[in-house]
């Protein structure tokens, strides 16, 4: 049995992390049986990140490595795609995970009106009397990293100008079908849709959340993908299941 170690559900999503959502969706797409184990402390993992899958005594870390493992077990996340479509899919995945994701991070960690809810959702294990002190240090470190990455140096309005061409590219792909590459979800959908869903689900009101929530094409795409991929393939009494 494969066990997905993941952040707990939050904000109406099956996990607080888009990468954990991606891993759960790929597990469902693979057709393999699996169960989930929620954790709010990634420090217990060798790379101190989630998602991770556990197979026997082996830990497979990072959603890309999880995909590779599932493909070794026979999963085909790009069935029916030609070489050109597979190349474009790879570019969309990288756009989602190396650009869209950081906009989501800044929306959650950088917006003063959003941060208190994020703090109290992500760090419930820290006693409330210590939570502000501990998490303020974590927040500063995160935002310093975003400053080095570059997006953290932009105003919210400038970030919206930066992300808009990406959102337009996604919309353009959706002219060709219900999903990014036709009538069935592929690997690109498992990466792109969780990022958009995470932006839309972020608590409070931000420019980015409003942009996604008011876009009918993107919202319908998020909902279709969630409906198609958030289907559990196994049950287990001792763990919570994907929604």
Question: What do these coordinates show?
Answer:
The two termini are 18 Å apart. The chain has nine helices and four strands; from the N terminus they run βαβββαααααααα. The chain folds into two domains: 71 residues, Glutaredoxin (3-Layer(aba) Sandwich); 147 residues, Glutathione S-transferase Yfyf (Class Pi), Chain A, domain 2 (Up-down Bundle). It has 243 residues and is an alpha+beta fold. Strand 3 and strand 4 form a beta hairpin. A four-stranded mixed β-sheet has the order 2-1-3-4, with helices on one face. The C terminus is likely disordered.
So what's the overall shape?
globular
The arrangement of helices and strands along the chain is: EHEEEHHHHHHHH
Tally of separate domains: 2
CATH topology of the largest domain: Glutathione S-transferase Yfyf (Class Pi), Chain A, domain 2
User: In what range is the share of β-strand residues?
Assistant: 5-15%
Given the helix and strand composition, which structural class is it? alpha+beta
CATH architecture of the largest domain: Up-down Bundle
Q: What's the helix count?
A: 9
- Please write the CATH class name of the largest domain: Mainly Alpha
Which spans of ≥5 residues are poorly predicted at pLDDT below 50?
233-243
């Amino acid at each position: 049995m494969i066990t997905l170690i993941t952040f707990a559900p939050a904000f109406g999503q099956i996990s607080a992390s888009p990468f954990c959502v991606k891993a759960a969706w790929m597990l469902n797409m693979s057709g393999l049986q699996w169960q989930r184990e929620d954790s709010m402390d990634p420090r217990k993992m060798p790379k101190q990140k989630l998602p991770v899958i556990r197979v026997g005594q082996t830990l497979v870390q990072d959603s890309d490595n999880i995909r590779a493992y599932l493909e070794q077990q026979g999963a085909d996340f790009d069935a029916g795609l030609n070489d050109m479509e597979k190349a474009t899919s790879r570019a969309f995945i990288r756009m989602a995970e190396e650009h869209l994701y950081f906009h989501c991070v800044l929306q959650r960690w950088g917006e003063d009106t959003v941060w208190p809810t994020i703090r109290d959702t992500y760090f419930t294990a820290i006693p409330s009397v210590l939570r502000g002190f501990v998490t303020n240090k974590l927040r500063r470190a995160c935002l310093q990293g975003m400053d080095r990455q570059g997006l953290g140096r932009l105003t919210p309005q400038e970030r919206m100008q930066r992300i808009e061409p990406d959102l337009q590219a996604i919309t353009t792909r959706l002219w060709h079908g219900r999903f990014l590459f036709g009538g069935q979800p592929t690997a690109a959908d498992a990466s792109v849709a969780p990022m958009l869903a995470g932006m839309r689900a972020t608590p409070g009101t931000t420019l980015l959340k409003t942009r996604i929530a008011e876009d009918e094409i993107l919202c319908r795409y998020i909902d279709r993908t969630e409906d198609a991929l958030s289907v559990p393939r196994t049950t287990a009494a001792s763990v919570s299941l994907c929604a």
